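Technical annex B. To support the medicinal chemistry partners, we prepared a structural model of the target in complex with S-adenosyl-L-homocysteine, based solely on the information shown next.
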Amino acid sequence: MLRKLLRHRSYIANNAYLPSPKRSMLSSPFSFFSATSSSSSFSSPHTHFVENVDDPTKSASSDSHSAPSSISIDRSSLYNPPDHSHTPNSDPDLVKHLKGIIKFRGGPISVGEYMSEVLTNPKAGYYINRDVFGAEGDFITSPEVSQMFGEMVGVWVMCLWEQMGQPERVNLIELGPGRGTLMADLLRGASKFKNFTKSLNVHLVECSPALQKLQHQKLKCVDEENEAQDTVKRTISSLAGTPVSWHTLLEEVPSGLPTIIIAHEFFDALPIHQFQRASRGWCEKMVDVAEDSSFRFVLSPQPTPATLYLLKRCKWATTEEISKLNQIEVCPKAMELTETIVNRISSDGGGALIIDYGLDGVISDSLQAIRKHQFVDILDNPGSADLSAYVDFASIRHSAEEASGEVSVHGPITQSQFLGNLGINFRVEALLQNCTEEQAESLRTGYWRLVGDGEAPFWEGSDDCIPIGMGTRYKAMAIVNKNQGAPVPFQ
Ligand code: SAH
Protein backbone atom coordinates (compact mmCIF):
# COMPACT_ATOMS: atom_id res chain seq x y z
CA MET A 1 0.00 0.00 0.00
CA LEU A 2 2.82 2.34 0.91
CA ARG A 3 4.28 1.58 -2.52
CA LYS A 4 0.94 2.36 -4.15
CA LEU A 5 0.72 5.66 -2.34
CA LEU A 6 4.28 6.59 -3.17
CA ARG A 7 3.76 5.77 -6.83
CA HIS A 8 0.58 7.81 -6.86
CA ARG A 9 2.29 10.74 -5.17
CA SER A 10 5.19 10.64 -7.55
CA TYR A 11 2.79 10.45 -10.46
CA ILE A 12 1.02 13.58 -9.31
CA ALA A 13 4.30 15.32 -8.67
CA ASN A 14 5.74 14.32 -12.03
CA ASN A 15 2.75 15.42 -14.01
CA ALA A 16 1.66 18.55 -12.23
CA TYR A 17 3.42 20.76 -14.76
CA LEU A 18 2.40 18.98 -17.92
CA PRO A 19 0.18 20.75 -20.42
CA SER A 20 -3.32 19.40 -20.13
CA PRO A 21 -3.56 17.15 -23.24
CA LYS A 22 -0.50 15.27 -22.11
CA ARG A 23 -1.68 15.10 -18.56
CA SER A 24 -4.94 13.53 -19.64
CA MET A 25 -3.11 10.97 -21.74
CA LEU A 26 -1.13 9.86 -18.73
CA SER A 27 -3.83 10.14 -16.13
CA SER A 28 -5.92 7.19 -17.28
CA PRO A 29 -3.55 4.35 -16.56
CA PHE A 30 -2.44 5.76 -13.26
CA SER A 31 -5.79 6.73 -11.82
CA PHE A 32 -5.88 3.02 -10.95
CA PHE A 33 -3.62 3.80 -8.03
CA SER A 34 -6.03 6.19 -6.35
CA ALA A 35 -8.17 3.34 -5.11
CA THR A 36 -11.28 5.18 -4.04
CA SER A 37 -11.77 8.00 -6.48
CA SER A 38 -10.60 6.48 -9.72
CA SER A 39 -13.97 6.26 -11.45
CA SER A 40 -14.28 10.02 -11.55
CA SER A 41 -10.97 10.57 -13.28
CA PHE A 42 -11.88 8.77 -16.48
CA SER A 43 -15.12 7.48 -17.89
CA SER A 44 -15.48 3.79 -18.40
CA PRO A 45 -17.99 2.36 -20.86
CA HIS A 46 -18.43 -0.53 -18.43
CA THR A 47 -19.38 1.43 -15.33
CA HIS A 48 -21.00 -0.95 -12.83
CA PHE A 49 -20.80 -3.77 -15.33
CA VAL A 50 -22.00 -7.09 -13.84
CA GLU A 51 -20.73 -10.26 -15.39
CA ASN A 52 -22.87 -13.41 -15.17
CA VAL A 53 -21.07 -16.71 -15.10
CA ASP A 54 -23.40 -19.64 -15.89
CA ASP A 55 -23.27 -22.56 -13.54
CA PRO A 56 -22.29 -25.53 -15.75
CA THR A 57 -24.12 -27.96 -13.45
CA LYS A 58 -27.51 -26.44 -14.40
CA SER A 59 -29.09 -27.48 -17.67
CA ALA A 60 -30.36 -24.88 -20.10
CA SER A 61 -33.90 -25.97 -19.35
CA SER A 62 -33.62 -25.58 -15.62
CA ASP A 63 -36.35 -23.83 -13.74
CA SER A 64 -36.23 -20.15 -14.49
CA HIS A 65 -37.54 -19.39 -11.00
CA SER A 66 -34.71 -21.14 -9.18
CA ALA A 67 -32.08 -18.92 -7.52
CA PRO A 68 -29.70 -17.52 -10.17
CA SER A 69 -26.23 -19.07 -9.87
CA SER A 70 -24.32 -15.99 -10.82
CA ILE A 71 -21.24 -14.30 -9.48
CA SER A 72 -21.25 -10.54 -9.68
CA ILE A 73 -18.05 -8.70 -10.29
CA ASP A 74 -18.07 -4.98 -9.92
CA ARG A 75 -15.42 -3.74 -12.34
CA SER A 76 -16.13 -0.07 -11.97
CA SER A 77 -12.93 0.74 -10.19
CA LEU A 78 -10.67 -1.43 -12.30
CA TYR A 79 -8.26 0.04 -14.80
CA ASN A 80 -9.73 0.21 -18.26
CA PRO A 81 -6.97 0.37 -20.88
CA PRO A 82 -7.39 3.12 -23.45
CA ASP A 83 -8.30 1.92 -26.95
CA HIS A 84 -4.94 2.74 -28.50
CA SER A 85 -3.05 0.44 -26.15
CA HIS A 86 -3.78 -2.55 -28.40
CA THR A 87 -3.13 -0.96 -31.75
CA PRO A 88 -0.16 -2.53 -33.57
CA ASN A 89 2.96 -0.51 -33.01
CA SER A 90 5.85 -0.49 -35.46
CA ASP A 91 8.27 1.33 -33.13
CA PRO A 92 11.70 -0.33 -32.81
CA ASP A 93 12.15 -2.30 -29.56
CA LEU A 94 14.21 0.38 -27.84
CA VAL A 95 11.67 3.10 -28.66
CA LYS A 96 8.88 0.88 -27.28
CA HIS A 97 10.96 0.24 -24.19
CA LEU A 98 11.62 3.97 -23.58
CA LYS A 99 7.97 4.86 -24.09
CA GLY A 100 7.06 2.01 -21.73
CA ILE A 101 9.29 3.42 -18.99
CA ILE A 102 7.83 6.91 -19.42
CA LYS A 103 4.26 5.61 -19.47
CA PHE A 104 4.44 3.25 -16.54
CA ARG A 105 6.63 5.48 -14.42
CA GLY A 106 3.92 8.08 -14.99
CA GLY A 107 6.17 10.87 -16.17
CA PRO A 108 9.26 11.87 -18.11
CA ILE A 109 12.74 10.43 -17.55
CA SER A 110 16.00 12.34 -17.16
CA VAL A 111 18.30 12.84 -20.14
CA GLY A 112 20.78 10.70 -18.16
CA GLU A 113 18.41 7.75 -17.99
CA TYR A 114 17.50 8.23 -21.66
CA MET A 115 21.19 8.24 -22.66
CA SER A 116 21.97 5.21 -20.54
CA GLU A 117 19.10 3.18 -22.04
CA VAL A 118 19.87 4.29 -25.58
CA LEU A 119 23.55 3.34 -25.39
CA THR A 120 23.70 0.33 -23.12
CA ASN A 121 20.26 -1.23 -22.70
CA PRO A 122 21.24 -4.93 -22.52
CA LYS A 123 18.83 -5.97 -25.30
CA ALA A 124 18.69 -3.11 -27.76
CA GLY A 125 21.28 -0.50 -26.71
CA TYR A 126 23.28 1.21 -29.46
CA TYR A 127 26.57 -0.47 -28.51
CA ILE A 128 25.20 -3.86 -27.58
CA ASN A 129 24.71 -5.80 -30.79
CA ARG A 130 27.01 -4.33 -33.40
CA ASP A 131 30.21 -2.75 -34.61
CA VAL A 132 29.60 0.99 -34.84
CA PHE A 133 33.10 2.22 -35.73
CA GLY A 134 34.94 3.19 -38.91
CA ALA A 135 33.94 4.36 -42.37
CA GLU A 136 31.09 1.82 -42.56
CA GLY A 137 29.87 2.66 -39.07
CA ASP A 138 28.78 5.91 -37.46
CA PHE A 139 31.99 7.50 -36.25
CA ILE A 140 35.73 7.03 -36.23
CA THR A 141 38.08 7.11 -33.23
CA SER A 142 41.83 7.78 -32.98
CA PRO A 143 42.91 4.11 -32.73
CA GLU A 144 40.94 3.45 -35.94
CA VAL A 145 42.63 6.41 -37.64
CA SER A 146 46.19 5.17 -37.18
CA GLN A 147 48.16 2.38 -35.49
CA MET A 148 50.41 5.14 -34.10
CA PHE A 149 47.78 6.12 -31.56
CA GLY A 150 47.80 2.75 -29.76
CA GLU A 151 51.59 2.60 -30.06
CA MET A 152 51.99 6.02 -28.38
CA VAL A 153 49.60 5.06 -25.58
CA GLY A 154 51.79 1.96 -25.23
CA VAL A 155 54.85 4.19 -24.79
CA TRP A 156 53.01 6.06 -22.02
CA VAL A 157 52.03 2.82 -20.29
CA MET A 158 55.61 1.46 -20.46
CA CYS A 159 57.05 4.69 -19.06
CA LEU A 160 54.62 4.56 -16.14
CA TRP A 161 55.46 0.89 -15.54
CA GLU A 162 59.15 1.92 -15.35
CA GLN A 163 58.31 4.70 -12.89
CA MET A 164 56.38 2.13 -10.84
CA GLY A 165 59.65 0.15 -10.52
CA GLN A 166 58.90 -2.43 -13.24
CA PRO A 167 56.57 -4.59 -11.14
CA GLU A 168 56.47 -8.28 -12.07
CA ARG A 169 52.67 -8.38 -12.27
CA VAL A 170 50.44 -5.53 -13.42
CA ASN A 171 46.76 -5.22 -14.20
CA LEU A 172 46.44 -3.31 -17.47
CA ILE A 173 42.78 -2.31 -17.69
CA GLU A 174 41.08 -0.71 -20.67
CA LEU A 175 37.62 0.80 -20.24
CA GLY A 176 35.41 0.57 -23.34
CA PRO A 177 37.90 -0.89 -25.85
CA GLY A 178 35.56 -0.68 -28.88
CA ARG A 179 37.02 -2.95 -31.56
CA GLY A 180 40.12 -3.62 -29.43
CA THR A 181 42.36 -1.74 -31.87
CA LEU A 182 44.13 0.43 -29.29
CA MET A 183 45.06 -2.56 -27.13
CA ALA A 184 46.11 -4.60 -30.18
CA ASP A 185 48.46 -1.84 -31.40
CA LEU A 186 49.77 -1.33 -27.86
CA LEU A 187 50.59 -5.03 -27.41
CA ARG A 188 52.04 -5.45 -30.90
CA GLY A 189 54.19 -2.34 -30.44
CA ALA A 190 55.38 -3.44 -26.99
CA SER A 191 55.92 -7.11 -27.84
CA LYS A 192 59.69 -6.64 -28.14
CA PHE A 193 59.86 -5.50 -24.52
CA LYS A 194 59.43 -8.90 -23.00
CA ASN A 195 59.87 -7.92 -19.34
CA PHE A 196 57.03 -5.48 -19.77
CA THR A 197 54.59 -7.71 -21.69
CA LYS A 198 55.36 -10.66 -19.38
CA SER A 199 54.12 -8.59 -16.44
CA LEU A 200 50.72 -7.81 -17.95
CA ASN A 201 47.28 -9.14 -17.11
CA VAL A 202 45.01 -7.40 -19.61
CA HIS A 203 41.46 -6.69 -18.41
CA LEU A 204 38.90 -5.30 -20.83
CA VAL A 205 35.82 -3.62 -19.36
CA GLU A 206 33.14 -3.85 -22.04
CA CYS A 207 29.34 -4.00 -21.80
CA SER A 208 28.74 -5.13 -25.38
CA PRO A 209 28.87 -8.88 -26.10
CA ALA A 210 29.27 -8.14 -29.83
CA LEU A 211 32.27 -5.88 -29.18
CA GLN A 212 33.77 -8.39 -26.71
CA LYS A 213 33.82 -10.90 -29.59
CA LEU A 214 35.50 -8.40 -31.91
CA GLN A 215 38.10 -7.63 -29.23
CA HIS A 216 38.79 -11.36 -28.85
CA GLN A 217 39.48 -11.56 -32.61
CA LYS A 218 41.48 -8.34 -32.79
CA LEU A 219 43.80 -9.43 -29.98
CA LYS A 220 44.21 -12.82 -31.69
CA CYS A 221 43.09 -14.52 -28.53
CA VAL A 222 43.35 -18.25 -27.94
CA ASP A 223 41.19 -19.90 -25.31
CA GLU A 224 43.40 -22.37 -23.47
CA GLU A 225 42.14 -25.92 -23.22
CA ASN A 226 41.14 -26.68 -19.69
CA GLU A 227 41.19 -30.41 -19.13
CA ALA A 228 41.35 -30.20 -15.36
CA GLN A 229 37.92 -28.72 -14.73
CA ASP A 230 39.02 -27.27 -11.41
CA THR A 231 41.28 -24.56 -12.86
CA VAL A 232 40.10 -21.33 -14.41
CA LYS A 233 40.27 -21.34 -18.21
CA ARG A 234 42.63 -18.66 -19.50
CA THR A 235 42.49 -16.66 -22.69
CA ILE A 236 45.83 -15.55 -24.13
CA SER A 237 46.46 -12.83 -26.70
CA SER A 238 48.98 -14.23 -29.16
CA LEU A 239 50.10 -10.68 -30.00
CA ALA A 240 52.26 -10.58 -26.88
CA GLY A 241 51.45 -13.77 -24.95
CA THR A 242 49.42 -11.89 -22.32
CA PRO A 243 46.36 -13.23 -20.51
CA VAL A 244 43.15 -11.32 -21.33
CA SER A 245 39.84 -11.29 -19.49
CA TRP A 246 36.57 -9.45 -19.88
CA HIS A 247 34.35 -7.67 -17.36
CA THR A 248 31.33 -5.43 -17.58
CA LEU A 249 32.33 -3.19 -14.65
CA LEU A 250 35.64 -1.88 -13.35
CA GLU A 251 34.66 -3.12 -9.89
CA GLU A 252 34.74 -6.71 -11.23
CA VAL A 253 38.45 -6.56 -12.08
CA PRO A 254 40.39 -8.32 -9.30
CA SER A 255 42.34 -5.88 -7.14
CA GLY A 256 45.65 -6.39 -5.32
CA LEU A 257 48.10 -5.80 -8.19
CA PRO A 258 49.61 -2.51 -9.36
CA THR A 259 47.21 -1.13 -11.94
CA ILE A 260 47.32 0.93 -15.12
CA ILE A 261 43.98 2.07 -16.53
CA ILE A 262 43.29 3.44 -20.01
CA ALA A 263 40.01 5.17 -20.87
CA HIS A 264 39.92 6.36 -24.45
CA GLU A 265 36.57 7.83 -25.54
CA PHE A 266 34.88 6.09 -22.61
CA PHE A 267 33.88 9.04 -20.41
CA ASP A 268 32.05 10.74 -23.31
CA ALA A 269 29.67 7.76 -23.48
CA LEU A 270 28.67 8.04 -19.80
CA PRO A 271 25.16 9.42 -19.25
CA ILE A 272 24.96 13.14 -18.54
CA HIS A 273 22.15 15.12 -16.92
CA GLN A 274 21.19 18.49 -18.39
CA PHE A 275 19.95 21.47 -16.40
CA GLN A 276 18.38 24.64 -17.72
CA ARG A 277 18.04 28.00 -16.01
CA ALA A 278 14.33 28.89 -15.70
CA SER A 279 12.42 31.59 -13.83
CA ARG A 280 11.95 29.17 -10.92
CA GLY A 281 15.67 28.28 -10.82
CA TRP A 282 17.68 25.42 -12.34
CA CYS A 283 15.40 22.71 -13.74
CA GLU A 284 16.47 19.31 -15.04
CA LYS A 285 15.73 18.66 -18.71
CA MET A 286 13.66 15.49 -19.10
CA VAL A 287 12.51 13.34 -22.00
CA ASP A 288 8.79 12.82 -22.44
CA VAL A 289 6.38 11.44 -25.05
CA ALA A 290 4.36 14.10 -26.92
CA GLU A 291 0.74 13.86 -28.13
CA ASP A 292 1.88 12.68 -31.57
CA SER A 293 3.90 9.89 -29.88
CA SER A 294 7.29 11.43 -30.65
CA PHE A 295 9.83 12.17 -27.92
CA ARG A 296 10.19 15.73 -26.64
CA PHE A 297 12.06 17.62 -23.92
CA VAL A 298 10.27 19.05 -20.88
CA LEU A 299 11.58 20.67 -17.69
CA SER A 300 11.19 19.10 -14.26
CA PRO A 301 8.86 20.98 -11.93
CA GLN A 302 10.93 20.37 -8.81
CA PRO A 303 14.42 19.26 -7.81
CA THR A 304 15.44 15.82 -9.09
CA PRO A 305 18.01 13.42 -7.56
CA ALA A 306 20.67 14.66 -10.01
CA THR A 307 20.30 18.18 -8.57
CA LEU A 308 22.70 17.07 -5.82
CA TYR A 309 25.37 16.60 -8.48
CA LEU A 310 24.57 20.00 -9.99
CA LEU A 311 25.14 21.59 -6.57
CA LYS A 312 28.38 19.67 -6.18
CA ARG A 313 29.56 20.73 -9.66
CA CYS A 314 28.69 24.39 -9.03
CA LYS A 315 30.68 24.37 -5.77
CA TRP A 316 33.78 23.57 -7.86
CA ALA A 317 33.18 26.52 -10.19
CA THR A 318 33.33 30.29 -9.67
CA THR A 319 30.09 32.28 -9.40
CA GLU A 320 31.21 34.17 -12.49
CA GLU A 321 31.59 30.93 -14.51
CA ILE A 322 28.09 29.79 -13.55
CA SER A 323 26.42 33.17 -13.99
CA LYS A 324 27.33 33.16 -17.71
CA LEU A 325 25.52 29.88 -18.34
CA ASN A 326 21.89 29.10 -19.07
CA GLN A 327 22.50 25.37 -19.38
CA ILE A 328 24.79 23.03 -17.47
CA GLU A 329 25.62 19.38 -18.01
CA VAL A 330 26.72 17.16 -15.15
CA CYS A 331 27.90 13.57 -15.30
CA PRO A 332 27.35 11.75 -11.98
CA LYS A 333 28.67 8.50 -13.50
CA ALA A 334 31.96 10.20 -14.43
CA MET A 335 32.31 11.46 -10.85
CA GLU A 336 31.60 7.98 -9.46
CA LEU A 337 33.90 6.26 -11.95
CA THR A 338 36.71 8.69 -11.09
CA GLU A 339 36.25 7.81 -7.44
CA THR A 340 36.47 4.09 -8.25
CA ILE A 341 39.62 4.62 -10.33
CA VAL A 342 41.20 6.73 -7.61
CA ASN A 343 40.42 4.22 -4.86
CA ARG A 344 41.94 1.48 -6.99
CA ILE A 345 45.18 3.31 -7.72
CA SER A 346 45.44 4.61 -4.15
CA SER A 347 45.35 1.08 -2.77
CA ASP A 348 47.11 -0.86 -5.55
CA GLY A 349 49.50 1.79 -6.98
CA GLY A 350 49.78 2.81 -10.63
CA GLY A 351 47.81 5.33 -12.63
CA ALA A 352 45.15 6.10 -15.21
CA LEU A 353 45.16 7.84 -18.58
CA ILE A 354 41.96 9.48 -19.78
CA ILE A 355 41.78 10.72 -23.36
CA ASP A 356 38.60 12.23 -24.69
CA TYR A 357 37.11 15.32 -26.23
CA GLY A 358 36.10 17.89 -23.70
CA LEU A 359 36.95 21.03 -21.77
CA ASP A 360 38.71 21.92 -18.56
CA GLY A 361 35.59 23.55 -17.08
CA VAL A 362 31.81 23.41 -16.77
CA ILE A 363 30.16 22.03 -19.90
CA SER A 364 27.05 23.85 -21.00
CA ASP A 365 25.27 22.06 -23.81
CA SER A 366 27.26 19.45 -25.71
CA LEU A 367 25.13 16.32 -25.98
CA GLN A 368 25.22 15.16 -29.59
CA ALA A 369 23.94 12.31 -31.73
CA ILE A 370 25.94 10.99 -34.68
CA ARG A 371 24.70 8.55 -37.29
CA LYS A 372 26.72 7.64 -40.37
CA HIS A 373 29.20 10.47 -39.67
CA GLN A 374 26.46 13.12 -39.54
CA PHE A 375 24.95 14.98 -36.59
CA VAL A 376 21.30 14.05 -36.11
CA ASP A 377 18.53 14.94 -33.65
CA ILE A 378 19.16 13.49 -30.17
CA LEU A 379 15.58 12.26 -29.90
CA ASP A 380 15.34 10.84 -33.41
CA ASN A 381 15.09 7.04 -33.59
CA PRO A 382 17.04 6.39 -30.36
CA GLY A 383 19.40 3.44 -30.50
CA SER A 384 20.29 4.05 -34.15
CA ALA A 385 22.82 6.83 -33.49
CA ASP A 386 25.70 7.32 -31.07
CA LEU A 387 25.06 9.71 -28.19
CA SER A 388 28.02 11.39 -26.53
CA ALA A 389 28.86 14.52 -24.59
CA TYR A 390 31.93 16.62 -23.92
CA VAL A 391 33.95 15.46 -20.95
CA ASP A 392 34.26 17.89 -18.04
CA PHE A 393 37.93 17.36 -17.11
CA ALA A 394 37.74 19.86 -14.25
CA SER A 395 35.01 17.78 -12.65
CA ILE A 396 37.18 14.65 -12.99
CA ARG A 397 40.07 16.50 -11.32
CA HIS A 398 37.91 17.70 -8.40
CA SER A 399 36.32 14.25 -7.98
CA ALA A 400 39.78 12.64 -7.90
CA GLU A 401 41.20 15.14 -5.43
CA GLU A 402 38.19 14.80 -3.15
CA ALA A 403 38.34 11.00 -3.25
CA SER A 404 41.92 10.61 -2.03
CA GLY A 405 45.00 12.59 -1.06
CA GLU A 406 47.19 9.77 -2.35
CA VAL A 407 46.86 10.59 -6.03
CA SER A 408 47.99 13.49 -8.18
CA VAL A 409 46.12 14.74 -11.22
CA HIS A 410 47.93 15.99 -14.33
CA GLY A 411 46.57 17.88 -17.33
CA PRO A 412 44.50 18.04 -19.32
CA ILE A 413 46.87 18.76 -22.17
CA THR A 414 45.85 18.60 -25.80
CA GLN A 415 46.13 15.33 -27.70
CA SER A 416 48.56 17.11 -30.00
CA GLN A 417 50.87 17.97 -27.06
CA PHE A 418 50.47 14.48 -25.59
CA LEU A 419 51.34 12.61 -28.79
CA GLY A 420 53.95 15.18 -29.83
CA ASN A 421 55.82 15.00 -26.53
CA LEU A 422 55.76 11.21 -26.60
CA GLY A 423 57.50 11.36 -29.98
CA ILE A 424 54.82 10.61 -32.60
CA ASN A 425 56.81 12.53 -35.23
CA PHE A 426 59.78 10.18 -34.79
CA ARG A 427 57.43 7.24 -35.09
CA VAL A 428 55.84 8.50 -38.29
CA GLU A 429 59.28 9.19 -39.79
CA ALA A 430 60.43 5.67 -38.92
CA LEU A 431 57.33 4.08 -40.43
CA LEU A 432 57.65 6.18 -43.58
CA GLN A 433 61.13 4.73 -44.20
CA ASN A 434 59.73 1.35 -44.98
CA CYS A 435 56.34 1.43 -46.69
CA THR A 436 54.52 1.63 -50.01
CA GLU A 437 53.37 4.96 -51.46
CA GLU A 438 49.78 4.07 -50.54
CA GLN A 439 50.75 3.29 -46.95
CA ALA A 440 52.75 6.52 -46.77
CA GLU A 441 49.70 8.51 -47.81
CA SER A 442 47.59 6.84 -45.16
CA LEU A 443 50.28 7.39 -42.49
CA ARG A 444 50.54 11.11 -43.28
CA THR A 445 46.77 11.59 -43.29
CA GLY A 446 46.45 9.63 -40.05
CA TYR A 447 49.20 11.69 -38.41
CA TRP A 448 47.50 14.99 -39.29
CA ARG A 449 44.13 13.76 -38.16
CA LEU A 450 45.56 12.82 -34.77
CA VAL A 451 47.54 15.99 -34.14
CA GLY A 452 46.04 18.59 -36.48
CA ASP A 453 43.63 21.33 -35.47
CA GLY A 454 41.03 19.91 -37.73
CA GLU A 455 40.57 21.60 -41.03
CA ALA A 456 37.76 20.57 -43.31
CA PRO A 457 39.65 17.98 -45.43
CA PHE A 458 39.54 15.62 -42.47
CA TRP A 459 35.79 15.83 -42.03
CA GLU A 460 33.84 13.09 -43.73
CA GLY A 461 30.40 14.61 -43.22
CA SER A 462 28.70 17.64 -44.71
CA ASP A 463 30.56 20.96 -44.89
CA ASP A 464 28.55 22.72 -42.19
CA CYS A 465 29.63 20.21 -39.52
CA ILE A 466 32.61 20.43 -37.21
CA PRO A 467 35.82 19.21 -38.84
CA ILE A 468 37.32 16.05 -37.51
CA GLY A 469 40.97 16.98 -36.69
CA MET A 470 41.54 15.63 -33.21
CA GLY A 471 44.67 17.46 -32.04
CA THR A 472 43.11 20.16 -29.86
CA ARG A 473 39.52 19.05 -29.26
CA TYR A 474 40.81 15.86 -27.67
CA LYS A 475 42.61 16.15 -24.33
CA ALA A 476 44.70 13.85 -22.16
CA MET A 477 44.64 13.70 -18.37
CA ALA A 478 46.57 11.42 -16.01
CA ILE A 479 45.75 10.41 -12.44
CA VAL A 480 48.60 8.61 -10.69
CA ASN A 481 49.51 7.36 -7.26
CA LYS A 482 51.77 10.01 -5.69
CA ASN A 483 54.49 7.36 -5.21
CA GLN A 484 54.97 7.42 -8.98
CA GLY A 485 55.78 11.12 -9.34
CA ALA A 486 54.61 13.06 -12.39
CA PRO A 487 54.09 10.84 -15.44
CA VAL A 488 55.51 11.60 -18.90
CA PRO A 489 54.76 13.86 -20.73
CA PHE A 490 52.92 15.82 -18.03
CA GLN A 491 56.08 16.94 -16.13
N1 SAH B 1 37.88 3.11 -26.90
C1 SAH B 1 37.32 2.73 -28.17
C2 SAH B 1 35.79 2.77 -28.21
C3 SAH B 1 35.10 4.02 -27.74
S1 SAH B 1 33.33 3.91 -27.86
C4 SAH B 1 37.93 3.54 -29.27
O1 SAH B 1 38.50 4.58 -28.99
O2 SAH B 1 37.84 3.15 -30.43
C5 SAH B 1 32.85 3.47 -26.20
C6 SAH B 1 33.15 2.05 -25.80
O3 SAH B 1 32.75 1.89 -24.45
C7 SAH B 1 32.44 0.95 -26.55
O4 SAH B 1 33.29 -0.17 -26.60
C8 SAH B 1 31.21 0.68 -25.69
O5 SAH B 1 30.63 -0.57 -25.93
C9 SAH B 1 31.81 0.81 -24.33
N2 SAH B 1 30.88 1.24 -23.28
C10 SAH B 1 30.05 2.31 -23.31
N3 SAH B 1 29.40 2.44 -22.14
C11 SAH B 1 29.82 1.43 -21.35
C12 SAH B 1 29.52 1.01 -20.01
N4 SAH B 1 28.64 1.70 -19.28
N5 SAH B 1 30.14 -0.06 -19.51
C13 SAH B 1 31.05 -0.75 -20.26
N6 SAH B 1 31.37 -0.42 -21.54
C14 SAH B 1 30.77 0.65 -22.07
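Notes passed to the chemistry partners:
Residues 119-120, 127, 133, 141, 143-144, 176-178, 182, 205-208, 211, 248, 264-266, 269 surround S-adenosyl-L-homocysteine (CB under 6 Å).
Residues 1-71, 76-84, 455-461, 463-467 have pLDDT under 50 and may be disordered.
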